[in-house]
Structure formats: C-alpha cells, structure tokens
TrEMBL record, chain B:
Protein name: Spore germination protein
Protein source organism: Fictibacillus arsenicus
Transmembrane as UniProt keyword: yes
GO cellular component entries: plasma membrane
Lineage: Bacteria, Bacillati, Bacillota, Bacilli, Bacillales
BP term (GO), one: spore germination
The UniProt record lists the keyword Transit peptide: no
Top-level taxon in the UniProt lineage: Bacteria
Family note: Belongs to the GerABKA family.
Residues annotated as transmembrane: 284-305, 326-345, 415-437, 449-473
Automatic annotation (TrEMBL), chain C:
Protein name from the UniProt record: Uncharacterized protein
Family: Belongs to the amino acid-polyamine-organocation (APC) superfamily. Spore germination protein (SGP) (TC 2.A.3.9) family.
Lineage: Bacteria, Bacillati, Bacillota, Bacilli, Bacillales
Source organism per UniProt: Fictibacillus arsenicus
A biological process from GO: spore germination
Regions that span the bilayer: 12-34, 40-61, 81-102, 122-142, 149-168, 188-206, 218-243, 271-295, 307-331, 337-357
Subcellular location: Membrane
GO cellular component: membrane
Length: 401, 529, 362
C-alpha cells in the first residue's frame, strides 16, 4: 500500500471538521480570572473568583457604566469542587493562567491553608507567578469585591501595588505562589506572607460610586508581614520588624531610612537606600554555633530637615553611623521577634546552615526551630552615602531667622 | 528517484496521446515534405499554396529573372518590406545585365548569381527540400524559386515589429541596470552576451514544439557550469514532446524535478543582469523565444530571496534587507495561523492587557477565529487577484474599496475583529516583499493549510506543519542539487550569499555544489592579487 | 543496499546530538533531581562520562564489523538464523518499545500541560504522520531537516538561557554531596540508560555515513554536545526553580521556561520554548522509526524498507496508546525500565565477546 498525495485530501477535509473541538475555546468565551480568594466556612471552602469584564475595560469599546470586574462565589469540599460549581453562576468557563492574586482569609490562614492549595500547583492552568496575600481581619471576598480606580482591574491594581511597594518601600513582601511552595516545604525556612487590609466599610467598596469618587471611600492597603508556622498564621510583624525581615532576606531594592537630625533632634533626615546587599553566614556550628547578618548598603541623601553641613565628610560619616544604627535596630528587632516571640525561623537561617554545614544540618533538621532560638546571631551594617542630590547644603542652613 | 520516474512516465504518456490523435498535417498534400523541390516552378508554387491552405498572408511575387520565371515567396508581416523593396529594385537594375551576360546565363544559374549578389548584404542559403522551404518561410525568410532550377534560395529578410528593450515591469530596482528582456530571443541572448564578453559563454540552440517550432537556447559558461547539470538540462529538454511552447512555464513544468510541490524549483527572471550573475555562479539559463522570462536552473530555496538590488547596494544594507525578507516570509506563512492558535488555544501566552483587549474586540463577532480568518484571507486574495488583472487605474480603486470600505465596514459592523484585520493586512504586505512572485504564491497556498492546522491543534499543529514542510523542502532537489542547500546540507562556504550577503570582496568562491572545478571567482578580491 | 542515500559526518554529528537531547530534555532534570538532589550536575557529568565510554564501545563494535548495520553484525556474529532471531527480538523488545515511549512522552506532555482536553489519539496521529512522512522520504531528507532545525534549537536555547540568567540562584546547588556519592551514582545510572544507552540505534545509521571511519569523533562529539545540553538544562532547573520543585515536577523544563519573565514584557513564552523539545523528540522518533523499519527490512529481507513504514507506524500508534495506563504507572515504571534497558545493553557486550572468541570477523 502506498500513501499518495490524493490521500491527503480527506485528511485535510477531516481537519476542517475537527476544528472547533477539544481545547479550542474562543477568546471571548472565557472568563478571565484575575484574582481568587479562599475562605473556609463550616469545613467547606468558599472560593471567590474575580473575573474581568473585557468590554468595559477595553479602550475602544470602553463602557464606563459597567463594573470592570465581577466576582463569583461558590462553596465546595475542595477548591476544584467549588471552582466547578462556579459554572452554575458564572456565564463563562473560568480561565486561570492570568491569575494575579491569591487572597487567603486570615481565618483560613490561622487554621492552616496548605491542604487547600494543591490544585493550584497541579492544574496546568495555574502558573506559579501570582502573588499570595493574607486578608488581615477580613474575609477574602471582601477584599476581592472592592472596586478601585486608576487601574480598573482590582487584581491588577493589587498586583502592581504590591510589586511597587515591595520594590521601593519594603515592609511588604511580593511573594509568588512558587516561592510560597518552596517556603512551605523547605525545612530551613518558615513562610511569611504580606497582609492586605480594607479601609472603610467593605460593602461600600462594591459600588460603582467608589470608582467615581476622587477620594474613594474604600481602599485596599497592604499591611505588614504575617509569620507562619508551616501553614498556620502565628502573628503579624510590625513595620520595623517587617523591614528588618526584608533586610535579612536581601529583599530590599530601594527604601528610605529616616533618622533624627543630630543638630536638632526634632527634625529628621531622610536617606534613600539605592542598593543593599545582605549576606548570612554561619560559623562552625558544631563547636561554637553562631550566625551573622551583614548588610552593605549604598545610599543617597534624599531630604534634610535641619541645618547641617553636608560638605564635610565628618557629617556624612555621622549620618552613615545613624543610618547603620537604624537599620541594625530593625534587623535586631526582626531577629528578636523570630527567636523570642514566635520561636520560628522565618528568616531562612536554616537554609544557610543547610548549605554551609550539611552534616550539622542533618542532625538538627528535625528540630531546627528549637535549635535556632538559642543560636546567637550577630549583625553588622555598613552604609555608604554617595550622592547628595542636586544640592550640596540645604537652603535651610541659610534661612532668615 | 521516484519523482524522476514519474516525470518520465508523464512524458511518455503525453507522447502516446499525441500519437493517438490525428496528425495535424494536411493529408491532401501531394508531395511528401521529405521530397526535393521539383524543377517545375508551377508545381512548387501549387504545393506551397496547398501546404499553407492558400493563406492570405502568404504572398507570391512573380517576376522574370533572366529569361526564366521566378517567384519570391514570403509571409506578409514577417519580412522587412524594405529588404523586399531593395530586392526588386536591384532585380530591375540588374535585369538586363543578367539577361545579356553570357557569362551568367551560360556558366552559372541565375540563382547562383543572385546568391552571390545578395550574399554580402543578407544571409542567403540554398535549400533543396520542400520541408526546409516551408520552415524557412515560416521563420520569416523570403524564398526565391526559379523555374527549372531544383533548389530554392532562402534570403534572410526577417523583420517584424518587436517590443523595444524597456524597463522591467516585474523586477524593479532603485539602483542598477533598468533594461529587461523582450520577446525576441536574439535580442535577449545579445543582452546577456553584451554583459559577458567571453568565448566561454556557450549558447546551444534547440527547437521545441511540434507545431510552434519555438527556439530555445541553453546558455552557460563553459568551464564554470557543471557539465553534469548541463547534460541533465539537455536531456530533460530533449524529452519534451509537445505541440507548442508559448511561454517559459511550458518548459518549466516539463523540466522541474518535483511536480507535487508548491515551491518553484526553476527560477525565472526578466533581467539580463540577473541572468549574467547566475551564469557567473555556474547556473544555466534557458531562453525561450516569445517570452521575456528566462529560466535559470538549478534554482535553490535561497535564490528566491535574493533580489537583484541586493548586489547593487552596500552589503550591510543588503544583509538587513535579506533578513527582513526572511522575517516577512515567516510572517506571511504563519501570521494568521499563529494568531488563531494563540487566540483559540494558548490564551495564557498573551499578556493580560492584550488578552483583555482582544477579548473585548472579539465580543460580538459571530464567527470562530478560524472562520473569521478564512473570510478575511479569501477576501484579500480575491481583491488581490482582481487588482492584478485590472487596468492600473481601476486596480487602485479596487484596492481602496477593498482595504478601506470592506475592512473598516466589517470591523464597524462587528463582523470581523479589528485585530484580525491587522493580522491579515500585515500578512498580505509581508507577502509582497518577496522578490519572487512564484515563491510568494507558494506561501499563500501553504498559509491556508497552516490556518487549518492551527485551528485544530494550535501551536502543536503549527509545529507539526513546520516539521512536515521542512521535511518536504529538504526532500526537494533542483537538477540534483538539494533544494535547501546551503542551509541543509549546511555548506559554510556557501552561506555568504544566502540569508545575508557578505561584502563583495568576500564573495570569492562560487557555490560548491554547482561547480566542482572552477570554484574561485577570478580577480574578485583585491586581496587575491 | 537498503538505503541509497549518504549523509555527511557533520550531519551525523547533528543527528546524534539532537537524538541525545531527544525526550530526555523534558524529564531528565526531574529524574536526576529525584535522587541526586542538588548534585544533579555531578550525576550528569558522571553519566555523560560513562555515556561517552558507551558510545565509544558502540563505535568499536561497528568498526570491528567494517561498519555493517546492526542486523548484519548480529547475523555475522550468531549465524544467519539465530542472528535474525536475535535482531528481531532486539528491535521488537528494545527499539520498538523505546519508540512507543518516545511517542507516548510527547503525547503525555501535550495532554498534561498544553492541551488537556484533546484526545491523545489525535496528538499521536499528527506526530506519527509527520514522523512517518520523514522516514518515507529517507535518511538524506530527514537528516537535512535535522540540520535545518539546529539553528532554531540553538537560538531558542540561547534565549532560554539568557532570559533565565537574572533568576539564577547559585546557592541552590549547595551543599555539594550532602548524602554522599551513592544517590548521585544511582541517578547517573538513570542518565546513562536514558539517553546514552539508546544511542545504540546509530549502529543502523553509521553504515550510511559517507566516511564511516570518521564517525568516531562525530559520534562522541554529538553525544557530548547533546549530553552537555541536558546537564545544562538540568542544572538550570535546579538553579532557577530549586531542587524540590524540579524533583516534584513532571516536566521541569517546561516549568523552567514558564518562569521566564523579563520586565513583565517577555514572559509566557513557554509554548514557543516547547519547540525545542518538539524538534528533538521529533528527531529522536524519526531516527528510531527509521532504524526500526530498516532493521525489520533487513531481518525479513524486504528490499524496500519504505514498505514497512506504514505497518510499523500503525503498530507504534496502537502500542503507544495502551502501553501506560496512567502517569503514575510511568513514574513507577521508570526505575524498572532502567534495569530492563541495561539488560538489553548486555547484548552489544555479548556481540563483542562472541566476536572476540571467533577472532577477527570477515
């Protein structure tokens, strides 16, 4: 038997018929899910999915009278169960590769969320690059139901807000789902997740009115970092500790440090950190366990609120010392919280030990958190100020009395 | 080699069919064409009139040559009236000389005198067979028959109106020679010979077409062109058995290696400079009388991306243009199919804002993306064909109506999404960038196939299509040379003038598979000296 | 001669390299990471070293028998009928099974991550159709195609590598040799079996290289290039997505390309990156199917191996659908397969021994 070219004709014809089956879904028939909230009520998961309403967002056909997003909610024994039940209420099949945010309610976080997330790791529709946050003091759906101006898609708004704040301010943490999975399984680090909060009455945020106000009544705001023991929320860090955590984790890209002026204690100086590099080290753990954090930072003077002479190296040295002290204080407080308050290694020292002292690690791996509490941790900060901005001395120095 | 066998079979089949059909020659002809001319003039004339069916454009001019009756036979329109006029003028002037010269009448025939008389000016040939006489007349000669003499004089009086050498209509250049071939084979070969002044430029003539008797010339540079390929070309040309050759494609379809492929394996051009360059590379040109398009063989895939202009602009510009062309080729091949695949199967590949924008555009479009794309593509092809065949002025109107009215109206009516119009337009424009029209058509055909593949299997289908296409391309050969050479098989030294073009002084060697012996281009590089 | 075409030494190298990368690129990081953990690169290097030794041994066999093809070698070695029988079982129980695995791998991959709802039959038919078309066109045509694909693979791989550079965390490969050498060695065994052991099919192709004597370097170079690429990919997985995720993922390379994200602009390109292994899997399956057809043709004295393309293709299609009932089965089967394959590895050794006993052949 010989395949001839004529045989190709029915094959091609067949292809035409086959078109339109299987994975073929038209782009307008999918509900683009951008955020997902998970809550737990009566042993059932409540899944809230935020879908985009494309026609009210698109620049050309933009119809501002309709809400840019819409949320659907369903209960189910598992997440997948709930998602499939969504088809009863949602007009289109939900589509998850564009998921930006996963919001876990604080209640679920306190009870432990790990068992609910397998679907997100297993299903090929989920990518692992969406951010995970905990809704502090709120239900997850409340967070997802808020309409926000400027970036109309609420999830996109949350996504870019978290990214920017983690980049430039630093008490928040842009944690992707992939990172979270790593933290959950790594024996040398306990997970931490950033919290998100509503300001104002949650129900007000659902109205279009919230979009039309110059000063929206309800806003979404990131708070500090939550500490977990594996998947159970143990408590919240304050801003100082959160920043300290980020210094230790080498997450700081750019942030500011405000220190009191040494000439006038009431006024302040703002220093902008432009680059920061952290190294965690261990010393021969078997004989003399000790760990250390060393931070090297490059900074610029951003704002001067008092009369000081910036043209003198001595002044700069003084400022550097102040900044170092400030950063060190944050780091110490983070370490102190970890070792004394929560007795959990959410700082990731375990991983450093694992890498540098695998033998010792094998011994303590099981009870690392207990071991961690007693190990002294040194910290050292070195700040180097480079630039003064476009002025040398401030005009404040010359102010008329 | 399967394809070769098939081509041969086809040839044989054609021949049999031709044999089975009644011969086109008129059975009433009394004297068989093999026969020699009769001494009796009337008989000859009668025979010729019969042969030509008393065609009105065949003229017989009677006159007396010496004491004998003579007749000059030619076809009106094929001969130069001036030459005929001169002929009779001269006859009149020398008539008494011929009549009274003893020398002439006694020792030699009048026709011999005529032969010597005209020889210096025009080509004069003596023929003795009817067949030869007939073909001489058909070729545009005037034939002189004299009573009682059994041979005829063929006087070259060819002179018909030809199109002048003008600018190329299909292959334009900004910089470079503007002249293009005409329909006259002699003009065409001369145009090339003017560029290559070397005795090694050989020209072999054939006549193909049982009825049309079309002149075909095979031109190559001896010692540069590969002898095997030259032989192969001759063999393939000799196998052709057809009633008529009117255009180069008649020949192309007979001599190409593979019939079942959308890709051209014979190159055609109407630019003498392109032919000259190809000859210098060792390729072979086939001239066909009656068409300005000259065939070049072997033709490889990369040749179709080389425009004449590439060699007349600086190498860096040419290289960028080549890369642009290759990119456009891929866009033109895969544009709509990748769009369909992504929009129907791989929505996760789109950035979120783009996805939302596309989804908003598609909202309300009643067709699936594949059907939408098909509608647009078919519309576009219709517009294109319509514009191509129409007079220029109307053609423009068609494109304006098509592009603006149909495109815009369709989008505004919500039948077609704007993104699809963009994709289809880019695809169409990309297609125009290819210098070779026939290669562009190949892509146009394949584009539809890829659209179906994308519509049923997404990118996976496209990948499978690309694999099949690559396999097909790699299995092709042009006169024994692998079609994808020098990409596959990879020949490093030949890459210099394919996807990119190196500076001229680096183009030192000729393509390796085309010529085995005379590889180095003489005196190309100043560094060689 | 069953095959009239000839390929060049260079083409042979490319063929070997892409064949080596084959399906391994998809799953080898996961297999290696499962036992060797962050020492994946050590396991890789050990595996590659032994693989090169193995390839050298294959070549030696080929050389000893004056570059005959495998079936002819077996016939020479064991006599005509036993030789044919051995060749038949070898091609049926090793090469054929291997081919079905390869086909199934691409089907499973497509079904798991890219086109979940499409029936695997359709995926297999399309892929197999193209492969059979390639086999039918012959050695020369598909080798040239392989050559044509090479630049694409290089480009895609370079893009993959460069775009992942910012995400590399070198600390991921520490500590070295945490659990001693043993798990590393066990991993490297998997690496030898898959893909280096499978290079034995090139004994069917060496005879059709225009200068068989020069194939030694080409064979080793191709293997080293392919193996090197695999080690690079595996190490990259560890460096970017970490040990645990690499080991847990079924297709770590795909996950790896999912993480590409340059400034929120160049991202979500994994479907294009998948072209890398589409190509390599395609090359591998074409070579395997070709060797299978050629081998069966010489066993049964069929003059034109192309006649066997369709029946063998149909068998491949059917067996590939029923060979694994589930993904778990495949995961469980992998270690067993290692030993099964090593069993077949013994055959070249046996050939060698027989030829030693019998003295210099021919």
């Amino acid at each position: 038997m010989k395949l001839t070219r004529k045989d190709l004709i029915p094959v091609c014809a067949l292809m035409l018929i086959l078109t339109g089956c299987w994975n073929n879904r038209e782009i307008e028939d999918i509900g683009i899910a951008v955020a997902m909230g998970i809550d737990k009520v009566d042993n059932q998961y409540v899944v809230t999915v935020q879908l985009v309403n494309p026609s009210s967002i698109s620049a050309r056909t933009g119809d501002s009278s309709r809400a840019p997003i819409v949320t659907y909610q369903e209960k189910g024994k598992t997440i997948f169960d709930a998602i499939r039940r969504l088809t009863k209420t949602a007009p289109r099949k939900t589509f998850y590769p564009h998921l930006k945010m996963l919001v876990i309610s604080e209640k679920l976080a306190r009870e432990g969320f790990a068992n609910s997330l397998d679907l997100l790791a297993r299903d090929p529709e989920f990518r692992s690059d969406f951010y995970v946050v905990v809704a502090k003091n709120h239900r997850a759906d409340h967070v997802l139901n808020v309409l926000v101006p400027v970036e109309k898609i609420a999830a996109q708004n949350m996504y870019s807000k978290l990214k920017t704040s983690a980049d430039v301010f630093a008490p928040t943490l842009a944690l992707t789902f992939g990172d979270l999975l790593h933290d959950l399984t790594s024996p040398g680090k306990q997970p931490v997740i950033t919290g998100i909060q509503l300001t104002g009455e949650p129900l007000e945020g659902e109205k279009m009115e919230n979009l039309q106000r110059v000063n929206p009544k309800v806003r979404l705001k990131y708070t500090n970092i939550a500490v977990f023991k594996v998947d159970k929320l143990k408590g919240w860090l304050n801003e100082k500790e959160s920043k300290g955590y980020n210094y230790i984790e080498n997450n700081v890209k750019s942030t500011i440090v405000t220190v009191p002026c040494f000439t006038d204690k009431k006024e302040n100086l703002s220093i902008e950190l432009i680059d920061s590099d952290t190294k965690l080290k261990t010393n021969s753990m078997n004989s003399h366990p000790e760990m250390s954090v060393s931070v090297k930072t490059d900074a610029n003077i951003a704002e001067v609120g008092c009369s000081i002479d910036l043209t003198k190296q001595e002044t700069i040295n003084k400022i550097e010392k102040l900044v170092e002290k400030d950063i060190n204080g944050k780091i110490r407080s983070a370490i102190k919280t970890a070792q004394q308050k929560y007795k959990l290694d959410f700082l990731g020292f375990g991983e450093v030990v694992h890498r540098s002292e695998p033998k010792y690690w094998k011994r303590v791996k099981k009870d690392w958190d207990k071991e961690f509490v007693n190990i002294p941790i040194k910290s050292k900060v070195r700040v180097h100020i480079h630039k003064l901005g476009k002025r040398s001395n401030s005009y404040i120095n010359e102010l008329k009395e | 080699m399967v394809f070769k066998k098939r081509a041969l079979k086809k040839l044989v089949k054609d021949k049999n069919e031709a044999d089975a059909q009644p011969q086109l020659e008129d059975p009433k002809i009394e004297a068989p064409p093999e026969e020699a001319l009769s001494t009796e003039l009337n008989l000859n004339i009668q025979y010729l009139q019969q042969t030509f069916g008393n065609s009105s454009d065949l003229s017989f001019s009677d006159f007396e040559l010496g004491n004998k009756k003579a007749v000059l036979i030619y076809i009106n329109g094929l001969v130069d009236k001036m030459i005929i006029g001169h002929f009779f003028e001269n006859i009149g002037r020398f008539d008494h000389l011929i009549k009274h010269s003893e020398f002439l009448t006694k020792t030699i025939e009048a026709s011999d005198f005529m032969k010597q008389f005209f020889a210096p000016v025009n080509q004069v040939k003596e023929v003795r067979l009817y067949k030869k006489v007939v073909s001489a007349i058909l070729a545009g000669n005037a034939v002189l028959l004299v009573d009682s003499i059994s041979h005829a004089l063929v006087i070259n009086a060819k002179g018909w109106r030809d199109r002048d050498v003008s600018e190329s209509a299909t292959e334009n250049v900004v910089r470079g020679p503007k002249e293009a071939f005409t329909e006259n084979i002699q003009t065409n070969t001369a145009l090339v010979r003017r560029k290559i002044k070397d005795p090694r430029l050989w020209l072999e003539k054939k006549e193909i077409g049982n009825i049309t008797q079309t002149s075909i010339s095979v031109m190559y540079i001896h010692s540069i062109a590969n002898d095997k390929i030259v032989k192969e070309v001759h063999e393939r040309l000799d196998k052709i058995d057809i009633d008529g050759i009117l255009e180069s494609n008649y020949i192309e379809e007979f001599i190409q290696d593979e019939v079942y492929t959308p890709f051209p394996t014979v190159f055609n051009t109407e630019r003498p400079d392109v032919v000259a360059a190809a000859l210098l590379e060792g390729r072979i040109a086939i001239f066909i009388d009656g068409t300005p398009f000259v065939l070049l063989v072997p033709a490889l895939f990369t040749h179709f991306f080389q425009a004449a202009e590439d060699y007349y602009q600086r190498w860096d510009i040419s290289t960028l243009l080549r890369l642009l062309r290759v990119t456009a080729y891929f866009i033109s091949l895969l544009g709509p199919s990748v769009y369909i695949a992504i929009i129907n199967f791989h929505q996760e590949m789109l950035p979120t804002p783009l996805l939302i924008s596309l989804a908003a555009q598609r909202e309300g479009v009643p067709f699936p993306a594949l059907i939408e794309a098909l509608i647009m593509e078919v519309t576009l092809e219709i517009l294109r064909e319509a514009g191509l065949r129409l007079p220029k002025a109307i053609g423009q109107t068609v494109s304006i109506v098509g592009a603006l009215v149909i495109g815009q109206a369709a989008v505004e009516a919500g039948i077609i999404s704007a993104a699809m119009v963009i994709v289809v337009s880019i695809t169409a424009i990309s297609n125009f960038i290819l210098p070779a029209y026939n290669m562009g058509i190949a892509v146009r055909i394949l584009r539809f196939l890829f659209m179906f593949l994308a519509g049923s299997f997404g990118l996976y289908g496209i990948a499978a299509g690309i694999f099949a296409l690559s396999l097909h391309l790699c299995s092709l050969r042009s006169f024994g040379i692998p079609y994808m050479e020098p990409l596959a098989p990879y020949i490093g030294s030949d890459m210099k003038d394919t996807l990119w073009r190196k500076p001229r002084w680096k183009l030192v060697t000729r393509p390796r598979l085309l010529n085995q012996t005379n590889v180095v281009r003489e005196n190309v590089s100043p560094k060689n000296k | 001669m069953l095959e009239n075409g000839k390929i060049s030494v260079r083409q042979f190298t490319v063929l070997v390299a892409l064949y080596t990368v084959g399906t391994a690129i998809l799953i080898i990081p996961s297999i290696l990471a499962a036992k060797a953990m962050q020492d994946i690169w050590i396991a890789g290097l050990i595996g590659l070293g032994s693989g090169l030794g193995l390839v050298f041994f294959y070549w030696k066999i080929s050389e000893r028998f004056q570059f005959m093809n495998l079936v002819e070698i077996l016939e020479k070695c064991f006599g005509k009928w036993i030789g044919k029988a051995v060749a038949f079982s070898y091609f049926t129980f090793y090469i054929f099974i291997l081919s079905t695995f390869v086909l199934r791998d691409i089907g499973d991959f497509m079904l798991t991550v890219m086109m979940v709802e499409t029936p695997i039959e359709a995926i297999h038919i399309i892929f197999l159709a193209v492969v059979l078309y390639g086999v039918k066109l012959g050695l020369e045509a598909f080798t040239r195609t392989t050559e044509l694909f090479l630049p694409w693979i290089v480009i895609l791989f370079v893009v993959l590598f460069i775009t992942l550079l910012p995400q590399i965390e070198f600390t991921n490969i520490l500590p070295i040799m945490e659990n001693g050498i043993q798990p590393v060695l066990r991993s490297s065994l998997s690496f030898i079996v898959f893909p280096f052991l499978e290079l034995v099919v090139f004994l069917m192709i060496i005879p059709y290289v225009n200068e068989p004597k020069k194939t030694k370097k080409a064979f080793l170079l191709g293997t080293a290039l392919g193996g090197g690429l695999l080690i690079l990919i595996a190490t990259l997985s560890i460096l970017v997505i970490g040990v645990t995720e690499t080991a847990r993922s079924i297709y770590p390379t795909y996950d790896l390309s999912k993480t590409i994200n340059i400034r929120e602009f160049f991202q979500r390109v994994e479907a294009f990156m998948a072209l890398i292994w589409f190509i390599t899997v395609f090359v591998k399956l074409v070579v395997l199917t070709y060797a299978l057809c050629l081998g069966m043709a010489s066993v049964f004295n069929v003059q034109d191996y192309k006649l066997l393309t369709l029946p063998i293709g149909l068998l491949l299609y059917i067996v590939s659908l029923v060979i694994f009932p589930s993904s778990t089965y495949l995961i469980e089967f992998t270690p067993i397969y290692d030993f099964y394959a090593v069993l077949w590895m013994l055959m070249p050794v046996f050939i060698w021994l027989v030829s030693l006993v019998r003295g210099k052949p021919v």
